[in-house]
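Entry for zinc ion complex. Fields follow.
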Amino acid sequence: MRADLHVHSSASDGTDPPAEVMRRAAQAGLDVVALTDHDTVAGHAEARAAAGRLSLLPGMELSCKAGGPRGGQRSLHLLAYLFDADQPELAAELARIRDDRVIRARAMVDRLAGLGVAVTWEQVAEIAGTAVVGRPHIARAMAASGAIASPREAFTRDWIADGGRAYVGRYALDPVRAIGLVRAARGVAVLAHPRAGRDTYVPDEQIAGLAAVGLAGVEVHHPDQSDNERGRLLALVHDLDLVATGGSDDHGSLTGHRLGAETTSADAYEALVSQARPGAP
Ligand SMILES: [Zn+2]
Ligand SMILES: [Zn+2]
């Protein structure tokens, strides 16, 4: 069984519509795909309708923020699966996160204008369409304006990478609260790519703390995590009795098409799904 549990579509910042994602997943020989768009479940209906023989695991990647070194804050992503998206408290938080994403994207466009980049909010909004707006949409507008050669170049300190000249932070959930919300909505939560980069490094103690409040798993197999880090995470996951998952974090052409490049084992998948409580959709 091949399961890719971390995939984005154009419902957030991926470049392919959900139906196209499912078509590509089938082509990649996957059996299970989790659609995990940022802070939204808007792509699920289209993905489900296009699933065919594929199994769709409904999911989402939740934006969180936790205390970091020297009193700072670092962003942290939680993958949530099999939760009830209509659970009122969770739905309200998701709406708040999405609203703030718009305010923040506008602020970044203003900063870019101040740096001489000829990008307008209207252009970014047109690229995002009905999707949850994110930095990749701004990056695409920047590339279209000629300020940079390709969208990937926007993700440096010169532009809109974390801490960059035009970067603006935004509202995100405390991860302990986020895990509580997902569990209250009868779902399971997995810590996404905790060792994918310096800006998003989650130390062992913090992972242990999240495990103590109901975290179900850790994404060990992710394209941006080295073999060395994967080895350390596997040992930690074993010690904490968590599930080790894997996913490609495919964003379509933005990341290079890589569906199925990382997968979750059948045992891990079963263990994860069994932790979603009965009655979960
Ligand atoms: Zn992420
Ligand atoms: Zn992701």
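NOTE: DSSP finds nine helices and seven strands in the chain.
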